[in-house]
Amino acid sequence: MQPKCNDPLLKMFRIDYVGTSPYISCIPSVVHHRLSSSDRFLVLSSDGLYQYFSNEEVVAHVAWFMEHVPEGDPAQYLIAELLFRAAKKNGMDFHELLDIPHGDRRKYHDDVSVMVVSLEGRIWRSSG
């Protein structure tokens, strides 16, 4: 069989994924929660955040950050904390992980998008 012209190019971009299908789903994970007077924010994120944090940890980190750094960005804070955890898990420091190009970094952590919505009117968005 004659090789096709694009075979070498396809080999460069082939990903050896070890997961099981379906690899992506259009079915969202939805939780219903009745708001109470103690609720202060809503966190919307991709599943990559939860490879390194439990729901309780996300809430604790955002609550701590909003209390101690009120002018800061809690979404960016979560991304930074995730990158610290991913680096530690893979035996490197934070800056070594950041030096890896984004495409290659997928080997160390999933792409992550986070949005924190304050129930008092502010919205922060970040990705990493």
TrEMBL record:
The name on file for this protein is PPM-type phosphatase domain-containing protein
Q: GO molecular-function annotation terms?
A: protein serine/threonine phosphatase activity
Q: Which Gene3D superfamilies match?
A: PPM-type phosphatase domain
Superkingdom of origin organism: Eukaryota
Q: Where is the PPM-type phosphatase domain?
A: 1-119
Q: Which residues cross the membrane?
A: none
**Record's Pfam families?**
PP2C
**Organism of provenance:** Nelumbo nucifera
